[in-house]
Amino acid sequence: xxxxxxxxxxxxxxxxxxxxxxxxxxxxxxxxxxxxxxxxxxxxxxxxxxxxxxxxxxxxxxxxxxxxxxxxxxxxxxxxxxxxxxxxxxxxxxxxxxxxxxxxxxxxxxxxxxxxxxxxxxxxxxxxxxxxxxxxxxxxxxxxxxxxxxxxxxxxxxxxxxxxxxxxxxxxxxxxxxxxxxxxxxxxxxxxxxxxxxxxxxxxxxxxxxxxxxx
Length: 215
Ligand code: ATP
Description:
Helix content is 35%, strand content 13%. By secondary structure, it is of the alpha/beta class. Helix 1 links the parallel strand 1 (6-12) and strand 2 (36-41). The longest helix has 13 residues, at 19-31. Residues 12-15, 20-21, 24, 109-110, 112-113, 135, 137-138, 167, 170, 172-175, 213-214 line the site of adenosine-5'-triphosphate (ATP).
């Protein structure tokens, strides 16, 4: 019998992709027995107020470089080629068409995104359209979903609790990487070597005014 597809969708700004993203994605892949993990760079995240610093092509290229030779990882430019803003629900619909009604689709988010969930576009439909998996994030407390009960109800929150992923705590953020580069500090331990080389060669994040895009 044909195995049901199990696909992890990992959206983000990836400005730049870093070792934290790769570590948690690998953990999620093993934990959820996924056969594919797809990185999906956002043209512009509806959850962040600032536009990415690196352009779309650079962020996409860095993902390609970061996942090179890692068989289960893939990348999709579907959000970059769609008019903005890009909404998660549309991306999940895109992959539902691709993988069919039987596929298990998981959408990963870090613990830092939990508080903003009630404001996501068509969030109730999204929670029904895929399994939203909340990951631990280094430098943060374990995700507390209690405040979500008043928005989504007990049952939906119990499902979310069930899908929380106890990912390894890797305290790395793209904001920190951009800040370090702009300050001339090393980031070799924070990004894969090919990404480091690409950033240096293209002088990404050097001398830019670095803002914390997550706020
Ligand atoms: P920025 O610092 O620019 O906000 P970021 O490091 O959070 O960037 P994003 O591309 O915005 O990276 O993250 C994409 C997704 O990955 C988000 O859901 C985020 O919560 C999650 N994520 C990013 N870094 C980690 C990490 N170190 N551990 C767990 N989840 C992470």
